[in-house]
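Question:
Write out your own:
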Amino acid sequence: MLDRIFWFFTQLKQHAFPTAASYQERFEVSSSTFKRDVAFLRDRLGAPVAYDRQRRGYFLTDASFELPPYWFDAHQLLLMHGLCRQMTQNLNSLPQEIRSFHERVKELLTMHFGPRILEAVSFENVEWADCDMRLLKTVADAILQRRILRIVYHTGYSGQTARRVVEPYRLHNYRGTWHLVAYCHYRDEPRIFMLSRMGEVEVLSRRYEGQQFDVSRFLDTAFGIYRGGVVQKAVLRFSPNIARIIRDQIWHKDQKMRMEEDGSLTLSVPIADLTEIRRHVLKYGAEVEVIEPQALRHQVREEAKRILFLYDKA
């Protein structure tokens, strides 16, 4: 149905005065199907469709009327449904506007494909941190209005509480967890804050004009969510047992891979912090060896010793 409506609406926009006969012949549908499609276009989507008796075809009484493009493509609708489901997982509740939009998308999908289509796409995150919708909305409003924020932030490892004044630039969802990319006035440098670790958030009356740094470039510099350090190269060698799996993975857009003669794989990725890359390496156990940097190699070796001690003790 969506393809038929797209074609019909395009004809209307081109002032081609499409007829019922041409519609039925093109799509091999009955007269009743044509009438239902026109009713859907007019009543559900709000298109001002009328019939011209002299030209014996249909036209738009308001030529400036437009439909959102997502109504037409079933694949786009299905993906949009999946993204809305994803947002439902990552937030306590969705804003009314998004819920209404999601209901409209589901209505269009089920009308064309039946209710089972709603289970065709899903996302799953692990180890993600929950986020309060009210907090997300407050931060989003500050970004839209370019208003400076005063936040109370709880650090993850030290357990300390810090008060910071920041310029909020972007909401960034990394592996299901919402972060704020901002310029920290205290540190006088770019910082990334997890929304789940924010306590109090106050929107100040002060505004900022331009951004102090290029957010996209900042996020693209290195592997993982941790930024701010000197960018260096991590070189990892994966065993032949797992090389084919790693070969299909993208760790970073600037990564480099090389298959070795013995079937192993060498992966090189830019890093700006050792924390996340160390955790990532450890999950592959003895199937990966850190070649460089030496600091990362040392940390992984020491962690392996602690793991061995933990299990030997048992």
Observations:
- The mean pLDDT is 89.
- Residues 177 and 194 are 8 Å apart (CA to CA).
- Residues 232-313 form a domain with the Alpha-Beta Plaits fold (CATH 3.30.70).
